[in-house]
Structures are given as structure tokens and as C-alpha cells.
Design brief:
about 450 residues; alpha/beta; Rossmann fold; pyruvate-formate lyase- activating enzyme; OB fold (Dihydrolipoamide Acetyltransferase, E2P); 3 domains; six-stranded parallel beta sheet; five-stranded mixed beta barrel; 21 strands; globular; disordered C terminus; binds S-adenosyl-L-homocysteine; binds iron/sulfur cluster; binds FE3-S4 cluster
């Protein structure tokens, strides 16, 4: 066999958000269509792809460390190729080649279709392809299915917002949605392979559009697919969280009662400076509305500590809103300066020590709230979609409630991929433990309650 026709293997290491994980499956599919096969181990792969994230400086530093390590590994393996993909490739392009010798290829997020061609050419040449293509949505490519019970499906790419701290729009380009029909097709294909839960992905998933149809229509259509038990979607932007979406969630049996609704800050001054497009009061009303329409809905959020100009008073407004809303969980971050963003140019940067101190206060308050809310699960029966065996205790299975809380319980392999009623016995912040319960009463009551609330609503927006 000649070098050119030899079957090559690939290995993808992915960092960052779920969109990046999804993209890894798109890349895998593109490579496999061109004759590559997945490598069992990174050390044996002919092509190593590092799929990077740029959202915070720390993410980039970690990725750089890892890429250096892999470049070192590659030195002992002549013929192997190292490609840097994802958001950092898009942001830094040529610059990474200068920083790390040993990288063969830098491929941005809109150029994955060219991977096979670029890899074939990458013979001693160090190539960079990072053009932004505002039409690229990879809608014709069926991503590799990872197996398992749960899958991500990107319904849109890019973002039209301009949150002043965020590097994503500059890297991922403008928002573009995939046709509804193609999305449903992709989900159906996954269901045939054993998928029972799908999470629709978009940087601002509420802005999904196919002609006059929006996310609510996609949810309603997906709810009718047989064999699919659960539907989720992330990330919702509070400004675009239309009542129609909440109503669709209430009406659709399989759409789970969970919203990821990033608040970022509880101070109107900071929200304005972030260009988020809502006030703290508007956010509170939205949460109240969501809880009226979807009793028991869980609400998670993202928070940034130490945005430029954030005073102690501003920060306390965030703490106050956290206490009032009682988020089920929060992803908390210290503000990180990102090159090219409007906030990065500001003179009133908060010292790193203060940002870190505030971050710790966010974490500790949220831990307290999450712990308290999870104690509330004890004694209740929850519907759990079983995902796998627990990694910590192989006698136990692990799954999630409709509200996205992790529940472990003893049980057999055959329950993986099924819905099980579990009575919760004890809970910590991150996980709850229980025993299998019998009967289907819980679900019937729960849905009836939701329907009643939907019917009593005033006129739709
Ligand atoms: N599209 C989503 C998520 C974007 S990135 C959204 O609009 O919410 C995920 C989270 O990272 C953001 O919600 C924000 O809390 C955080 N983040 C983004 N840029 C950041 C920065 N420069 N510094 C710190 N946190 C940041
Ligand atoms: Fe970034 Fe804001 Fe777009 Fe989210 S909505 S990706 S935070 S610009
Ligand atoms: Fe990171 Fe890019 Fe996602 S910057 S958070 S991998 S869109």
C-alpha cells in the first residue's frame, strides 16, 4: 500500500462548550467520509486534532499547554499530524504557529469541510485556514453519533449579540439557523441509534428561525417524534425568552422543565455596560413568568464577577438577586479580559484579586442555595432518565431528573436508556441518591398540573 492510500486514524480532543463537542462530531464525520478511522488511543493516531476554546484567558492558557505537550509527543512519531481547531484557531490563526513549533495545521470553525484536503496537503507546510463563512451551518453533514442516551444537536451557529465581554460573535460569526426539517431528520437518525434525549444547541437558541417558525415550533415538532423521551435546549438569552417558548414547554410532554438563563450580573449599571438588553427587574419578572407557566421549573444561570466598573455595591446586587431567585445552579466566572472586546478596552478594570474574591463569594452562596434546593428533593419521587452506570459505584446507575439534577440509585444494566421513577433518600449539592419506586402516578399528576396552569394564562404575547 502506498502512503497516500493508507487508511489513517484520527483522534479529537475537545475543550469548551457543547457546541465544540458537537463540532468534534462534525469533524469526525467529515474525516470518516474521507476514509479516516477513529484511533483507539491518542498516542497511536496519525492525526491529532485539538478543538479549542477562547472564551476566557485561562481556557486558552490550558489549551496552549496541552498543544505544547502534544507537539512534544509528535516529535517521536514522524508522519503524525497535529491540527489546532476551534475558537482559538479562529482567533489566533497564524500567531499560534509562531508560538508552538510542531503544529501542522490551524483550522477555524467554518472550515471543517476542508479538513481532508488540508490534511492531505499538510506535508511539511504549515497551513492556516480561518475564514469566517456566514453561510456555513454544516447542515448537510450528519455528525458522528457518540453512542449513549443523550445527544446534542446544533440548531443554529454564531451569535448576533454584542455582549461587551464576549469573544464568541467575533469568532463564530453571525447567527445562522439550520432548516427545521433537517434538524428533525438528524434527531430521528439518532433515535434509531438509541438516543432518548436531545439537547438543542445555539449560542442564543431563542433566536432560532426557519422562515416564520421559531424555537417553539421546533420544540412542538420534536415533541411528536416517537422514541425520543426528552428534549432540552441551551442557551436561552433572557431578552429573547419569548412567552411562546414557555408555553410550548408547558404543552409538550417531552420538553423538560429546565431553563438555562444566564443573568451575568444583578446590577442594572453593569447589565447596561455588558449590553445585555434587560434590567434586573425584567429578569425577575421573566423568572416569575416561567415559574407560573412551568411549576417546578429549574433555573440555572451564568454569572460574571468583577466586570470592568463593578463596585462592591453592584456586586451585592448580584448576590441579592441570587438569593431572591434561588437558582438551582450557577456557572460562575471571574471576568476575563478578551482581546478585541469592548469591555477589554475599558480603563476601569477591577483588580484580579478583587475579581477572584467576588468569584469565591458567588461560589459559596450558590453552593448554599443548591444544597438547600436539593434537600427539597428528599422524600419526593422523580422521573429519571438513566444514562449509565455510576463511575464512582458500579452497583449504581446514574441519570437525571427532568429538571436536570443528577440522581444515582441501585439497579441493573437493562434500565439504561429507560425512564425510571426514583424516590430520593438523600441529597448533596451535586447529586441525589434514591431507590426505584413503582407506578406511573407521579408523571400523570405533574403534567395535569402544568396543563391547568397553561389554560389559565392570559392572552399570549
Ligand atoms: N451564548 C451563551 C454562552 C456564552 S459563553 C450566552 O449568551 O449566555 C458562556 C459563559 O461564559 C457566559 O454566559 C458568560 O457568563 C461567560 N463568559 C463569556 N465571556 C466571558 C469573559 N470574557 N469573562 C468571564 N466570563 C465570560
Ligand atoms: Fe456571547 Fe452574548 Fe452571544 Fe452569548 S449572547 S455568545 S454571551 S455575545
Ligand atoms: Fe469556547 Fe468557542 Fe464555545 S469560545 S465557549 S468553544 S463557542
Amino acid at each position: 500500500m502506498t502512503q497516500a492510500t493508507e487508511i489513517k486514524s484520527y483522534y479529537i480532543e475537545s475543550y469548551g462548550c457543547q457546541m465544540n463537542l458537537y463540532d468534534a462530531d462534525i469533524m469526525a464525520s467529515i474525516l470518516e467520509r474521507s476514509g479516516y478511522r477513529p484511533s483507539r488511543a491518542l498516542e497511536e493516531a496519525d492525526v491529532i486534532l485539538v478543538n479549542t476554546c477562547s472564551v476566557r484567558e485561562h481556557a486558552e492558557q490550558r489549551a496552549m499547554g496541552r498543544i505544547r505537550e502534544l507537539a512534544g509527543l509528535k516529535r517521536n512519531r514522524p508522519g503524525a499530524r497535529l491540527a489546532v481547531c476551534g475558537c482559538m484557531a479562529q482567533r489566533m490563526g497564524q500567531e499560534i504557529l509562531g508560538l508552538i513549533p510542531g503544529i501542522d495545521l490551524v483550522v477555524g470553525t467554518d472550515s471543517y469541510k476542508n479538513l481532508p484536503k488540508l490534511l492531505a496537503q499538510a506535508d511539511g507546510l504549515r497551513t492556516v485556514e480561518t475564514s469566517v463563512c456566514a453561510q456555513q451551518s454544516y447542515s448537510q453533514i450528519i455528525p458522528r453519533y457518540r453512542g449513549g442516551v443523550s445527544a446534542f444537536v446544533a440548531v443554529m451557529r454564531g451569535c448576533d449579540n454584542r455582549c461587551t465581554y464576549c469573544v464568541v460573535p467575533a469568532l463564530r460569526g453571525p447567527a445562522r439557523s439550520r432548516p427545521l426539517k433537517q434538524i428533525l431528520q438528524e434527531v430521528k437518525g439518532f433515535v434509531v441509534k438509541g438516543c432518548r434525549e436531545v439537547t438543542f444547541l445555539g449560542q442564543n437558541v431563542n433566536a432560532y428561525r426557519d422562515g416564520h417558525r421559531g424555537l417553539q415550533d421546533l420544540l412542538r415538532k420534536a415533541d411528536q417524534l416517537s422514541g425520543l423521551y426528552r428534549i432540552r435546549f441551551i442557551t436561552s438569552h433572557p431578552r429573547d425568552m419569548d412567552q411562546e417558548i414557555l408555553l410550548a414547554m408547558a404543552d409538550c410532554q417531552n420538553v423538560c422543565e429546565h431553563l438555562h438563563l444566564p443573568l451575568q450580573s444583578g446590577s442594572d449599571k453593569i447589565l447596561r455596560a455588558m449590553r445585555r438588553g434587560y434590567t434586573a427587574e425584567e429578569y425577575r419578572s421573566l423568572v416569575q413568568r416561567a415559574r407560573e407557566i412551568l411549576p417546578g421549573v429549574s433555573i440555572t444561570t451564568d454569572l460574571i464577577a468583577g466586570f470592568p466598573g463593578e463596585s462592591e455595591k453592584d456586586f451585592r446586587e448580584t448576590l441579592r438577586l441570587m438569593r431572591d431567585v434561588e437558582f438551582d445552579d450557577a456557572f460562575t466566572f471571574a471576568y476575563s479580559h478578551r482581546p478585541g472586546t469592548a469591555a477589554g478596552e475599558k480603563k476601569n478594570q477591577v483588580p484580579l484579586g478583587v475579581r477572584q474574591g467576588r468569584l469565591e463569594r458567588l461560589i459559596s452562596l450558590q453552593r448554599e442555595i443548591t444544597h438547600k434546593l436539593n434537600q427539597g428533593l428528599v422524600g419526593h419521587t422523580e422521573e429519571v432518565l438513566v444514562e449509565s452506570r455510576s463511575k464512582r459505584n458500579i452497583q449504581e446507575l446514574t441519570g437525571r431528573t427532568r429538571t436536570n439534577k443528577v440522581v444515582n440509585f441501585p439497579g441493573g444494566q437493562e434500565l439504561i436508556g429507560t425512564l425510571v421513577k426514583v424516590r430520593v433518600k438523600r441529597a448533596q449539592s451535586g447529586t441525589a441518591w434514591g431507590q426505584q419506586a413503582s407506578g406511573n402516578k407521579f408523571e400523570a399528576t405533574r403534567r395535569a398540573e402544568v396543563k391547568r396552569n397553561t389554560i389559565s394564562l392570559p392572552s399570549r404575547k
